[in-house]
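Q: Hi! First time doing this. I have a protein sequence and I read that you can turn it into a structure. Is that right? Here it is:
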Amino acid sequence: MRMTLNPDSKKTQRSNTSATYLKLAQMDSVKPGPMVLDYGSGKGHGTLILKTHWSSTVHSYEPFPDGNPDFTHIDQIPHNCYDVIVCFNVLNVIQGHGQRAMIISNLLNCLNPEGQAIIGVRTVQNVAAFTKTATSCGDAEWEYPNGSFQKGFNKEILESEVLSDSRTRIQRYIKGLNPLTIVITKGN
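A: Yes, that's right. Below is the predicted 3D structure, encoded as structure tokens:
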């Protein structure tokens, strides 16, 4: 299966995620390591925060750039390289379980063997609060008149998505970031 990205996903890029990135950068429980990837960096605000607060090399990936990400195509990102991958609000805008499974696989491919991916998503309640102009597609999914898409998550849905790749190991949940944030690692 080939990854198909919806170009209207760019319409969901937000500049108000800076507070979430700042909280992450200041958490004692998150040790960034020397190589960090901001996967789905959007406008790049979060990448700048991580570069400012962590003494790491921070790269960014965004297929619909509104700025200057390091990578714009998934095949440009080195495999087995990153100690930490931050992936905030990306799974919410990817339509279809198969496409989200490919994102998880890509994250695991980019992690080094001891690395961890921090995945934050909007919950069903968060997404439902902004659906006045949206059409329900069922299963906590909505399409908007501008062509964009949002999926809401709960713990069970998120675990089902991240466990779609047999290499995934759930390490823990992080409270106080995105409404729902999970840390995964790559098993053998």
